[in-house]
Q: What sequence folds into this?
């Protein structure tokens, strides 16, 4: 049995598969060569992350392909329903990266609270000549402890972020149409505690939160969840984090709100039109930026690899 891991797979997962007798190839095949390569080499399993697209051409063109696996959560690069209609098993690894995304969010909360992302940009060029003026510029930071964080989307990543935020002494509120009640377990040292989270409507949350972080899928209608109207009812000086999907926050509305001071700072890990985001977004002095690395830790990649491998073994009913 042959597996093509076209966007790579962690060694941990590759080793599980190879031990079970699978051949795993991790060389990236160009998108327009994939159909030929899969058929010529007889691959039955195609594993991708976000780079490789699995559209109808591959699904129709590779009749012997049995499984399509996505290392990670979002499957917008795969025509999932069509592939399933054609009898392919399509799967992902939804839980493996929640902690990594939550930790990135916490890092972003700390940096947008104190503008350290921007002082890191300014210090190399101006630190030696304008130290005092930079010190003044970055002297209006705020603390996280005691502030209210609003979590929009209270699924895996949202709940994981809540655990960290509680640990930082933040007051956590959340909004999710499918979660009416939530109790979050938090382990600090040997102590296990449980915290009840106040669940609100999105609108009520916008009005109460000092920090807002988004953990929702892209709405099916493609319309931003946060646009001008939603920003208008938020607190003045709110700080926002988007590590969900580009377009969940309307980028024009965000830029306006940053420019008029409604939003004090934002952190974006995801962008409209990846991998070529808008230059004015990238250059904005009040936006902390990362290039869609929420899930990209060694630990998450290991968990993803193992989870992909175990689903393949289960499908082929092979013991590890
Ligand atoms: P999840 O399915 O566990 O949780 C999503 C939650 O959002 C669900 O509980 C759902 O009810 C809720 N929701 C949907 N629409 C909503 C709305 N309009 N308002 C409030 N809540 C709403 O998903 P997850 O594993 O927590 O992942 C969340 C998102 O994070 C994914 O959809 C993905 O786009 C993104 N993600 C990003 C990265 C990254 O690298 N930055 C990595 C993994 C996932």
A:
């Amino acid at each position: 049995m042959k597996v093509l891991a076209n966007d790579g797979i962690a060694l941990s997962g590759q080793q599980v598969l190879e031990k079970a007798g699978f051949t795993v190839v991790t060389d990236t095949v160009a998108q327009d060569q994939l159909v030929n390569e899969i058929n010529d080499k007889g691959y039955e399993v195609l594993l991708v992350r976000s780079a490789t697209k699995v559209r109808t051409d591959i699904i129709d063109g590779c009749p012997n392909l049995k499984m399509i696996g996505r290392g990670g959560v979002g499957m917008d690069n795969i025509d999932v329903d069509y592939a399933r209609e054609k009898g392919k098993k399509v799967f992902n690894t939804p839980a493996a990266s929640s902690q990594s995304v939550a930790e990135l969010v916490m890092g972003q909360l700390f940096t947008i609270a104190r503008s350290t992302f921007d002082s890191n940009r300014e210090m190399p060029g101006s630190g030696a000549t304008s130290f005092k003026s930079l010190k003044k510029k970055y002297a209006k930071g705020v603390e996280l402890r005691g502030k209210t964080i609003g979590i929009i989307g209270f699924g895996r990543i949202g709940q994981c972020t809540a655990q960290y935020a509680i640990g930082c002494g933040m007051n956590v509120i959340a909004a999710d149409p499918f979660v009416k009640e939530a109790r979050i377990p938090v382990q600090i040292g040997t102590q296990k505690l449980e915290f009840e989270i106040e669940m609100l409507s999105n609108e009520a949350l916008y009005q109460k939160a000092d920090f807002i972080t988004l953990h929702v899928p892209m709405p099916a209608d493609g319309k931003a969840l946060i646009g001008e109207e939603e920003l208008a009812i938020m607190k003045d000086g709110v700080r926002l984090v988007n590590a969900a999907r580009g377009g969940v926050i309307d980028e024009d509305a965000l830029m306006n709100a940053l420019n008029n001071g409604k939003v004090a700072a934002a952190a974006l890990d995801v962008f409209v039109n990846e991998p070529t985001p808008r230059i004015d977004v990238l250059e904005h002095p009040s936006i902390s930026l990362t290039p869609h690395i929420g899930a990209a830790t060694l630990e998450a990649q290991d968990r993803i690899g193992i989870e992909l491998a175990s689903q393949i073994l289960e499908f082929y009913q092979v013991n590890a």
Summary: Residues 265 and 286 are 5 Å apart (CA to CA). The radius of gyration is 22 Å.
